[in-house]
Amino acid sequence: MNSVFAPKFFTGIKDYKRAQFPKDLMAGAITGVVAIPLAIAFGIASGVGPSEGLVTAIVAGFLISLLGGTKVQIGGPTGAFIIIIYGIIQQHGLSGLMIATIMAGILLILMGVFRLGNVIKFVPYPIIIGFTAGIALTIFSTQMNDLFGLGIENAPADFLHKWACYAEHWQNINFWALGIGLCSLGIIIVTPYVSKKIPGSLIAIVVMTFICWLLREFGGVESITTIGDLYTLPSGMPKPQLPAMELAEGQTWLQLVQTLFPSAFTIAMLGAIESLLSAMVADGVIGDEHNSNTELIAQGIANIATPFFGGIPATGAIARTMTNINNGGRSPLAGIVHVAVLLLVLLLMGPLVGLIPMACLAGVLIMVSYNMSGWRTFVWLAKNPKSDFVVMLVTFVLTVIFNLTVAIEVGLLLAVALFLKRTNEATVIRTFSGELDPGKNNDLRLHGQDLEKLHIPAHTEVYEIDGPYFFGIANKFDEISRHIGMDDQRVRIIRMRKVSFIDSTGMHNLEQLYRRSKNCGIQLVLSGVNQHIYKALDKAGLVALIGKENIRDHINGALSRAGEIVGEDIPAN
User: Fold this and answer.
1) Tell me, what's the pLDDT at 486?
2) Which of 83, 241, 329, 520 has the CB geometry, 3.0–4.6 Å to 324, for a possible disulfide?
3) What percent of the chain has pLDDT over 70?
4) Sign of the dihedral through C-alpha 296, 298, 304, 306
5) Buried b / exposed e along 210-242 (16+ C-beta atoms within 10 A)
6) What is the pLDDT of residues 134-191, one digit of tens each?
7) How far is it, in rounded angstroms, from Cα 151 to Cα 248?
8) Which residues lie closer than 8 Å to 283 by C-beta, 6 or more apart?
9) In this model, does residue 465 exceed pLDDT 90?
10) Are 64 and 320 in contact (CB under 8 A)?
11) Kind plus residue range of the DSSP H or E element containing 176
C-alpha cells in the first residue's frame, strides 16, 4: 500500500541518474518560458494582477514539484480557477480570497490524509466536461472588453449582464486593440504548424508587445492599453505577510468562514480533479504511477502557502505538465527549474512585462478557452446516453449562468441520482416456486454440465436478489414483497448469493419483512449469505431475530430448512 505522504522528489532522488539532469534542465527551462504568459494572463483574468499570477506559479510550482506525488507535475494558476476567484474577489475582496484559498488547502490536505485520492478520480466524466466547457465559455466572455478595447471598468461578473454591458458599449470599439488581439490569435494558431517547440502565446506576446511599443513611441497611438497602464509591477519577490483583513459590520469570523466554505470546497474539488487528471495523463505517457494522496497533500500545502505571498489558488496544470514531458522532463527537478525561470522573469523583467498590451493577453486567453472547451467531446457526448448528456448540459448551463459552486454541487447530485437509478435498474429480483434451476443465470452449462433442477417445497417461494442490497433496491424489494399473506405461503427464502453489500436501509427492510412475514405465519429463510453480509446482519441483531437455523450459506440448506418447516423431506445437499 502506498504511503499517505511520500513525495517523489525524496523517494526518487537516490535513483536519479546524472544523464537525466541535462534533459530535466532543458525541459524545465522550456516549460518555464511556456508558463510566463499563462501565469500573467491567469493572474489578470482572475482579477488580481500579473505579479500575483507569477508569484503563484513560483511558490505553488516549487512546493508541488518538491512535495508532490508525481515526478513530472507542473503546478501553478490555471484557467479553471478564473471565474471562482473573480467571484470571490467581487463579493469578499482579496482578504476573502486568501481565507478561501487557505481553507481549500486544508480541505485538500484532509482529502489526502484520509486517502480520498482514488475517490476523486471517480467524478463522472460528463460533469468534468460540463464545467470545463462552462469555464471556457466564461473565460471567453471575460476577454471581450480587452479584445475590443471597450474600456469598461468594473464589468458585471455574471454572464448575461456582462454581455448586456458589452452591447451597451459596442460603439467604443478600439480597432487598434482589436487588431492586436486578432493578430495575437493568428500567431498562436499558426505557430504549431511552423514549430511545436516554441509556444505560440510567447511569440505572440513578444511580437505584439514590440509592435505596440513602436505604435506608442513613434506612431502616436496612445489608446492601446498595456499591463503597465493598469497594474503596478513589483521589482522582486514579495515578502510573506498577512494582508489586512476586515470584517463587514456585524460579521464574525465564523460567519465569514461559513460564507466562504462553498467557494473553498469548489476550489479544493477543482484543484483535486485537475491535478489528479493531470497526474493520470502523465502516468500514461511516462509509464509511472503517481501517489494520489501525496499529490493532494502537496496541493493543499501549496494553496495554504501562496496566499501569504499574495498568490491565488493553484493546481497541477495539464498543458504545462505535458510540455515538461514532451521536452524530456522525468523528475521533479524539471519543475523546480521551471520555477527558477519564472523567478528570473519576476526579478529582472518587470518593466518589460508592463509593456504587454491587454488585447494580446485577451488573444492568449481566448485560445486557452478554446482549448479548454472540449467541443468535440461535447458533440460526442450528445450521441451517448441521454442521461449523461443531460448531466453535462445542466453542469455547463449552471456554470455559465450561475457559478461554478452551484454547477459542481448540482452536477454531483445529478450524477449520484443517475448512478442510483442505473444500479437500481441493473439489480434484478427474481421469484421462483415449484422448482429451481441451479444452472440458470450462471455459466455452469458452458462447461458441459447439466445440473438437475432443485425441488422447491410446497407453500414456499424463493426470491433472488442479484446485485447490491442498498436503499434503492431495498425499497424495490419491499414493494414486490408486499403481497405476503395473500396466498398459502409458509416459507419465503431470500437468496442472497449475489448480494455483495447491504446497507442500513437493506437491513431495516429485512427486519420489516421478517416481522410482516411472522405476523402472516410465514418463516423467513436467508440463503447464500456470505461471511461479510453475515457479520453485518449479526451486528445489527438480525441473526438473533431471524434465527441462526434460518440463515444458510447455500440454497440446498435453505430448501432443506423450508422442507422441515412445511413437513417435506428435502435433502440438505
Assistant:
1) 54
2) 329
3) 90
4) negative
5) ebbbebbeeeeeeebbbbbeebebbeeeeeeee
6) 888 988 999 999 999 998 887 887 888 899 999 999 999 999 999 999 999 999 999 9
7) 31
8) 70, 289, 290
9) no
10) no
11) helix 175-194
Residue 297 pLDDT class (50, 70, 90 cuts) = very high
Residue 448: per-residue pLDDT: 43
| Domains contained in the chain, CATH given | 19-240+272-419 (no CATH), 427-566 (3.30.750.24)
Are 54 and 349 in contact, with CB atoms under 8 Å apart?
A: no
Q: What is the DSSP string of 400-460?
A: HHS-HHHHHHHHHHHHHHHHHHHHHHHSEEEEE-SEE-TTTTSSGGGGT--PPPEEPPTTE
8 Å CB contact between 316 and 295? yes
Closest listed residue to residue 295, CA positions, set 96, 3, 1, 7? 7
Place of cell 449562468: 401
Give residue for cell 469578499. 92
Note the pLDDT tens digit of each residue in 502-516.
888 888 888 888 888
C-alpha cell at 445: 452449462
Residue type, 533: I
CA dist 162 and 156 (Å) reads 5
pLDDT over threshold 90, residue 383: no
* Strand 460-466 with 428-432, pairing: antiparallel
pLDDT of residue 72: 96
DSSP state for residue 467 in the 8-state scheme? S
Q: What pLDDT, on a 0 to 100 scale, did the predictor assign at position 443?
A: 40
Measuring CA to CA, how many Å separate 282 from each of 85, 316, 321? 27, 11, 7
Task: Give the pLDDT confidence score for residue 436 in this predicted structure.
Answer: 64
Q: What is the DSSP letter of 235?
A: S
